[in-house]
Amino acid sequence: MKFTEKSLVTLISRVFAAIINLIAGVLLARALGPSGRGEYALLLLAPSILSSIANFGINTANVYFIAKKKHNLRDTVINSIAFSVIFGLIFTIIFLLFFDSFYIFFKGVTPQYLILAVVILPVLLIHMYFNSILIGRLNMLEFNIVTVVQPFSLLALLYIFIILLQMGVKGAFISWTLSYVVPTVLMSVFLMFQIKSNKDVEVFVPYSFSKQIGLMKELLQFGVKSYIANLASFLSYRIDMLFVNLFLDVATVGYYSISVMLAEMIWYIPNSFALILYPVVSSSDSDTANKLTVQACKQVLLFVSLAAILLFLFGKQIILLLFGKNFTPSIQPLLFLLPGIIALSVDKVLSSFITGKGRPEISGYIAGTNLVVNIGLNIFLIPKFGIIGASISSSISYSIAGVMSLIAFLRISKK
How many beta carbons lie within 10 A of that of residue 401, not counting itself? Predict the structure, then answer.
């Protein structure tokens, strides 16, 4: 399949996943209410932040070296498992040792649930690394299957634990945890069969521990370059929820989480294009990479703008219909998020180009600026304007990141 076709197939699978996630979100909001929904959002945020901190860019490095055919599949899988276990255990222990210091940002969350949330860190890292291997090999069929399996598993498990067993927030968290175990096992099966297939004859090469150490160093050296960018990007998406909980309360986090969930559904569009663009740029000549990136940006801007307009016009009705009047405070923050969502969609595509050209440190500068601006604005605006202030902070910082990425693309593409 060509680049556009692969992007559209990936987009379709992600749209399907988004619909399932939306249904799951409605189920959670209706069953848990604003406070329960806020606690659930914070519970998921803890291991998500830790996985972003603990991955050290290995996922990005996997895509790059696999696409460039510099590392074989067997060695990449072995190294991914090793990194997952090592980094997962280290950062889980660190979090538990300083639990009381971190808990100030998670007030309102049941401490026992938060501890359990952090313990699953190695599973999240393996899921992330295996995903990156599929992307690097452009195994989009397998990747898209996994993309759909995760939210479908979540929805089925939520029905069991929330509706049938009435387990509340605890049941919701158990469902989320198991929903990542299922696709991780599935990816393990996919990769095992690929290693044993005729396409991967390196399986017959004897295992060399010294070689693995060398490959792991290569992965870390490249991964660290994009690590700051990925970490700063993720924190800029989620740091506002921590500040909302710090300055306000867990119920308000519940309202804001619905606004963010609906707005970020638009990002399924640029993410689908960016996933394909990164390995393609890594393995293409400059002219091809430049043309594909411009093409992707035009298509993403068109689709994203249309989606944002629809959400602006019908966001209120969607929230009231799906989540009920209890979530009326989610309406205005959603509208203020949309300009930033559009701007950062461009950044997501261009960041794939920048990293694919071997310049991940530039994305790091952009993401770092985005994060610093976001934090500063959140501290200033949330106490004054509540969750609307959080939305405004995100839109401003996202817009700055979009402009910076565009400038970087124009400079790199001329060289």
Answer: 30
Angle, helices 387-414 vs 209-247, to 10°: value is 140
Tokens linked to 277 = 């663009």
d(CA 394, CA 340) in angstroms, rounded, equals 6
Structure-token pair, residue 281: 């740029």
Half-sphere exposure of 289 (CA within 13 A, CB side): 24
- Asked if residues 278 and 63 have their Cβ atoms less than 8 Å apart, the reply is yes
Read off the pTM.
Answer: 0.81
Q: Quick one: which of 280, 58, 26, 263 has its CA closest to 159?
A: 26
Contact between residue 266 and residue 345 where contact means Cβ atoms under 8 Å apart: yes
pLDDT tens per residue across span 337-356: 999 999 989 888 888 888 77
Cβ pair 369, 311 in contact under 8 A: no
Give me the torsion for CA of 361, 363, 365, 366, rounded to 10°. Answer: 170
3-state secondary structure 95-138: HHHCHHHHHHHHCCCCHHHHHHHHHCHHHHHHHHHHHHHHHHCC
Quote the tokens at residue 401: 């990141």
Could you tell me if 232 and 367 are in contact, meaning their C-beta atoms sit under 8 angstroms apart?
yes
CA distance 296 to 351: 12
Collect all residues with Cβ–Cβ distance below 8 Å to 158 and sequence separation of at least 6: 24, 27, 28, 171, 172, 175
Rounded to whole angstroms, the Cα distance separating 196 from 204 reads 9
CA distance 190 to 197: 11
What's the confidence (pLDDT) of residue 118?
86
Q: Which residues of 264-278 are buried (b: 16+ CB within 10 A; e: fewer)?
A: ebbbbbbbbbbbbbb
